[in-house]
Protein: Pyridoxal-phosphate dependent enzyme
Amino acid sequence: MFDNDGVFRPVPFDSEALRPRLPSPLEEVADERFARHGVRLLLKRDDLIHPELVGNKWRKLVPNLEAAAGRPVVTFGGAYSNHLRATAAAGRLLGLPTVGVVRGDELADRPLNPSLARCAADGMRLCFVDRATYRRKADPGTLAAVLSAADAEDAYVVPEGGSNAAAVRGCLALGEELRDHADVVAVACGTGGTLAGLAAGLGPGRRALGVPVLKGGFLGDGIRALQTEAFGGPVGDWALDERFHFGGYARTTPALEDFARDFEGRHGLPVERLYVAKSLYALVALAEEGAFPRGTRIAAVVTGAPFSP
Ligand SMILES: Cc1ncc(COP(=O)(O)O)c(C=O)c1O
Structure:
């Protein structure tokens, strides 16, 4: 980063502030909805890796912060993005300038919601762009215009959701940590970057199950593209179950809310609603459908924690 004299000083990466708890804890829980089908449920507590870069955010962001080598970081997200908040927090912890490009120019004239307010409080400069521009942000011309408008031409760019080859490789370790302990590993998917790395790290005889929280059915191609970028081609045994988006991103239903509250009561952990709740719901439904042979060890990755303003 540039200090007051305009001198470039790389951020020392071995930062105490980002020190993780790894491998993250793996906890078996007693839940009769699984036990009666002869299967075991383990919770992979990635929500305990780091208090501010929670869950998959630490695994995905840290390789990118390293690659940024002290340059300002620009990234993208919606108004409630967990990824934007984590990037802003990393910026504060490392003393690194961050810029958040936010979907929806109408938001510029409104008071910041609690999630964006946290980003701003952590020092992230917010730039609001209209939805059409936001959709085209991967197009080089559009990206250059967005970066220029944000006065961030020299910044290191992290894509929406933090998913690029570095992030996917960062999630390899999640699979490696689980390969000796679980037969099936379930994870909620937004961009699919976490699943892409997890599946590659699991190794032979293990299966990764992705639960997309967005509607659309287009995620498989994106995951194959991410794996090709990160590893040169598709890798690992993974599949998606597209039935549990509950209407799409950030949508919920009373049944999902009841489920999440009940799960918190049963197992004493906070359940993040946008992603984690949907993946846990999917696992319970699949167990009830008899989708897992007796003796299967299922790990559910707790990829985040609820945001409390
Ligand atoms: C809590 C949580 N879980 C899961 C995901 C999905 O990660 P990915 O985009 O790598 O599929 C996200 C993405 O932002 C998230 O915030």
Q: What stands out?
A: Residues 72-154 form a domain with the Rossmann fold fold (CATH 3.40.50.1100).
